[in-house]
Amino acid sequence: MVEGALWRRWVFFYIPLTAFIVALLFPFYWMIVTTVRPDSELYRPWNAPNYSPFWTTHPTLEHIKDLLSETLFSTWMLNTMIISIAATVISLFCGLLAGYALSRLKFPFAGSLGTAIFITYLVPQTLLFIPLADIIRNFRLGDTPWALILTYPTFLIPFCTWLMMGYFKSVPRELEECARIDGATRWKAMVYIIFPIAVPGILSAGIFAFTLSWNEFLYALVFLSSPEQKTVPVGVTSELIRGDVFYWGELMAGALLGSIPVAFVYSFFVEHYVASLTGSVKG
Amino acid sequence: MAEVHIQSLNKKFDEVHAVKDVNLGIRDKEFVVLVGPSGCGKTTTLRMVAGLESITSGRILIDDKVINDLPPMDRDIAMVFQNYALYPHMSVYDNMAFGLKMRKFSRPDIAKRVQDAAEILGIQQLLARKPRQLSGGQRQRVALGRAIVRHPQVFLFDEPLSNLDAKLRVQMRVELKKLHDRLGTTAIYVTHDQVEAMTLGDRVVVMKDGLVQQVGEPLELYNEPANLFVAGFLGSPAMNFATVRVSGSDGVLWVENEGLRVKPPGEAAGRLGHYIGREVTLGIRPEDLHVASAADSAHLGFDAVVEVVEKLGSEILLDVAVGPDTMVASVDPSVRVNVHDRLRLALNPERLHFFDTRSEAVI
Amino acid sequence: MTFTALATPSVYAGAPKRGPVTRLLEDERWLAMLLLLPTLALLGLFIAYPFIEGVRLSVTDAKVGVPGQFVGLQNFERIWNDDIFHVAVWNTCVYTAVATVFKLALGLWLALLLNHHFKGKAITRAFILLPFIIPTVLSTLAWKWMFDPTFSVINWMLFRLGLIHSRINWLGDPHLALISVIIVNVWRGVPFYAISLLAGLQTISPELHEAAAIDGARAWQRFRHVTWPLLLPVTLVIVLFSVIQTFADFQLVYVLTGGGPANATQLFATYAYQLGIGTGLLSQGATISLAVFPVLLVVVIVQLLYIRRVETH
Fold first, then answer.
1. CATH 3.40.50.11310, domain B4-225, yes or no
2. Which end of chain A, C or N, has fewer beta carbons within 10 A?
3. CATH code that applies to domain B240-356
């Protein structure tokens, strides 16, 4: 409990905390309000009198309808979903195996490889996107979802590996040793004993990977060109602006709906998400 | 038939020479205990038998088959770990069945074996539970059950009782002994507890710093320790040691230091002949000291000052000062003594031990 | 229940026949290699290879569709003398430094606040992470709308509160644009810092604070002498990640200002994009991207060393 006199509690705790919460959540509130506001109310200049921007008395689903019917938004959602899930699956697969190898097996260069994988996590996409664009083009993967499904793991795998390593370290070695004495090969001990125990870790890593994939922008921007192939972040920012006009209603609707899958997944797995976040930092 | 032969076994971890030239022959159905302080190499030796550590040099044979290069799964052994190592995501039944499943036993076979083992250990009603729902003692039994169902050639135990509380430990010790009598499987047991070693082992192997100090039946090691370490390691309270000088004149041999002057009996005196004028270490167990009475020879006793009196009920332990040394004597509970009392202690001449001060070997 | 089965010794099974693959996989080294293969293949193909390609591109004069010829260090010379590049370097450094300081300070404050018990703590914690969860581009769009020169809701609020009389052109004013962008970056990053620092705070035993309090330390002193030193390792790791990400930031600026007005918010990444993809001057874009690398390397090494030193204390 927060100690001290009532006024202290308010000044030092409740007020700052509320301020933080409001500041952090206001843009989302604004997103929601804008989405359901009719155009007539949206475009009122900031210093117009008699104007309360924080709510609307005539909520409308017009923007959402327009978004879904007149743009390729649903296609973008589908694309992003497929790409994110595929990239997550690939990254989990690689991260699981690599994490096990690095944390449980002794082999030459184990330390260096672990460091190398860690370092690739620190290499930002902005360093590689130009030559990568060329390479993608040469492999004839340009403008296909494969361009992203294969490149997203580059920043997902290091994270998944690292997370799984931390997880495996908490599993006692005796379990595998016992399994091997019981008659399992190393492979079977890994698959039947260790992996099932690591499921919570796999879940955390998977959720984080999914979120990171959904969030990715630069590669999607550079590798995809036709509107039908685009992902939600790219589509919303590029296709919803006609000429120089920003259709804010639709834009905010797109931003809102585009955030829902991630928020949804997040809401179910908050604990896992926080665990992976803090796990990556503590590791 | 399952004999285990360890020949010239060595293990080096980078610079550390953990196991030095260990030779051991374990007979079929024998229960051998490897005992020693931590770092003595007993666990490493066990793990090499299991196949969990690679062998630097030497051979291990089961019957007449060299198993150096066999992976653990092919050695037909079972191991019970200190932390039980139960598979947390499986039920007790599945834990016990795992090894049999890996060996492709049929389901009815598995069921029968698991049931039989569960009955022996009294854990039939736990079969559906998960490890986290079990107490320490129950988990230990499941770990045992998992080892038993496999009907292995050799059982390996890695300090299985260390994680149990004192009372449970005593109970499980007895049960383990009964189990071994019943099953008759060759077993190698590692522990740092000398009580477990003495009570469980058909033969005991004392190790220190990677070397085997002595091998023999428990009482043999207790009564005839081969060196200072074994003498001091087995037995509680530990054997008393005192550095004494051997002096001899006119064919009569004495050993003495500031606190005592004792005439060793004939046989011991004979062996000490070479040491006249030199120092040796004298060893006498607490239970071989008693309060001197008129009947005791003056040559076989010494004066001491009582420093601490520990009344245990079945005996009284006296911490006494003998000159500059301290010794512990275990005396009859009827003895009436107080702190700071001076008294005379007599020793049992048959139970005197002497050790070379440099080599620490028994004389 | 009689139990006879175990009394009869079993026939020594001996080693069952094991296929060559099984025997291979029993060897730690071969198994490790197999397990690492997919990862190394993907990372090699899409990180190592592009990196080398990037270096190669930077020493050619390639453009889109035109494979270039070797031109030595010409590109590096060019950007060295490029005014916009200088601006971009300056902007990126200011952007990163200022944003990081604010993220750390505000994140720490929030973490300290969250470290108390109060009703609805779990829900609050969950909601607070939203800016970090929601795709950056989408929340940045919301900010763009909030900053809109004509319709800004922030201007509306400030006007209503009587704090301003004429509009603030958050994104269009060259003097303000960088600040606005920093604000959005800080907004986005504070939750990450807060939650990670909170986890670090929770590993500090409350007994240490109690002992310090008994010893007479006041709140600020307790923070300085107990909390902060113990939090340092975690903080350094967080800052390491954050600095690298912020230095290479692209999405935020691209959506908000595209690098303008008049390069006021031009960063390494946006300039590289503009040159390499926007105008198709691949080699020059690659050069700019590469220019980030040495800085990144220095930052990483310095912090890794510092972390190691703090940890061994």
1. no
2. N
3. 2.40.50.140
